[in-house]
Design brief:
InterPro entries: Glyas_Bleomycin-R_OHBP_Dase. It comes from Nonomuraea rhodomycinica. This is VOC family protein. It is a single chain. The chain is mainly beta. It has one domain (about 10-85): 2,3-Dihydroxybiphenyl 1,2-Dioxygenase, domain 1 (Roll), CATH 3.10.180.10. The protein has one helix at about 15-25, and strands at about 10, 30-35, 40-45, 45-50, 60-65, 65-75, 80-85. The strands form two sheets. The chain has a four-stranded mixed sheet with strand order 1-4-3-2, covered by helices on one side. It has a three-stranded antiparallel sheet with strand order 5-6-7, with no helix packed on it. It starts with 7 loop residues before the first strand and ends in an 8-residue tail after the last strand.
């Protein structure tokens, strides 16, 4: 799986509450927003906001609405989600 795009993954309690702050910080609107399993996600700027419980974290590789993903913990403790975008259309709110 080739890494094509990276996002800083930021965990938030509530996506609707967090988004206005990130819109003000980035000067952008979310480029994508979708639900997956027990998570709600929004991509804005170089960030991927993730709302959900710790138990709902993704592993992988998984087939997801955007294509495929893999979330791993690297040596040193960094947790990174890698995404391989597919041709699926994702609803942007």
């Amino acid at each position: 799986m080739a890494a094509r795009t990276t996002y800083a993954r930021i965990y938030v309690d509530d996506l609707d509450t967090a988004l206005p702050t990130f819109e003000a910080l980035t000067g952008e609107r979310p480029g994508l927003r979708f639900s997956y399993r027990d998570l709600e996600l929004a991509g804005i700027g170089g960030c991927l906001l993730v709302a959900g419980t710790p138990e709902a974290l993704l592993d992988g590789p998984n087939d997801v609405p955007t294509g495929r993903n893999l979330t791993i913990r690297h040596p040193g403790g960094a947790v990174v989600e890698y995404v391989e975008f597919g041709s699926a259309k994702v609803h942007v709110r």
